[in-house]
């Protein structure tokens, strides 16, 4: 029987569609239950698991490794569920299932903005503006999650066997489409697809043991018992002596990882590869009350591989930074309510490691001097040159990462 996954944004009627499909096919549904299972299986806080599935990686993660733990715990629990038939999973973890497990029907459900706003208004009692903000927040979390776990965006066509847009399709249409596609011959479990499930489960057992032994920087793939382990590394330092020390450390790490993996029942061989791991994404927050401007700016930065989150006011920016500290903030000075300079002052006081780039259309010379004195990384005037802004964001992020690396090295030397 085909396993079904459903990925959707909020307020796309996906919950209703999933329940109707389950009723029609006699399937079980799980969503948040995945987090509950992972929490119970690994004695790990549900709150941390749920937060990880919004793409949140805390600045203290370099010490706690809660993100890496959460991802392995979630994937391990998902691999365990794949052993059972007649299941529908609805949630962000849908894309964690390896592509070579072919008896999975992968469904994406979307809806246009007007439809989603009406659903949010009805379900949450919000006005149109509040509904739009809630939708945007949910979409940002999904995009952030995908940036952390995948090389493509959440709606890339290659992620899905079928994408269903609403309201051009009704809820009943969507149910019929899923049930019809579930019967496709390509979704019949094959020997290779079943083996891929076993390989996924074994890879997670290896990953778990590596975590338990303190190795948080490893990716694991298994092919019929043959384990390939990818060890992420920092950039190799310059200088002959530094490179030699780095090489010796990696060889010792490689030996330890090989020994651990080879000791897992079911692993027939182990091959280890040095890998840079996922490219470091700059965590950027854009703050401006001119919604059209800042959304367009976010889109232009995304094209340059600088994904960003967007908020439309000073108070919202402060709340955001308190819960999800970015590397870089691009801040407008002239906003209703709390002024940009006051926001800058508070950010540098409470979150000094956040680099703030001022972008304003109303700045004066004394304002620029005040901003720099308060700790602004750069001061740019509108209309801003996107290439200059991109360069400044990258330079600011490099400064943040360098400071974090120095802090981490000091901690190791204590």
Brief rundown of the structure:
With 414 residues, the protein is of the alpha/beta class. It has helices at 14-25, 33-42, 46-52, 61-64, 66-81, 113-124, 128-149, 171-182, 191-212, 240-262, 291-303, 314-323, 340-350, 365-373, 386-413; strands at residues 3-8, 28-30, 87-90, 104-111, 162-166, 218-223, 226-232, 269-275, 284-287, 308-311, 328-331, 355-360, 378-381. The strands form three sheets. A five-stranded parallel β-sheet has the order 2-3-1-4-5. A five-stranded parallel β-sheet has the order 10-9-11-12-13, sandwiched between helices.
Give a structural overview.
It is built from 15 helices and 13 strands. It is of the alpha/beta class and 414 residues long. The strands form 3 sheets. Strands 2-3-1-4-5 form a 5-stranded parallel beta sheet. Strands 10-9-11-12-13 form a 5-stranded parallel beta sheet, with helices on both faces. A 3-stranded mixed beta sheet has the order 6-7-8. A hairpin with a 2-residue loop joins β6 and β7. α5 runs antiparallel to α9 and α12 packs parallel to α13 (340-350). The longest helix has 28 residues, at 386-413. Residues 234-238 have low confidence and may be disordered.
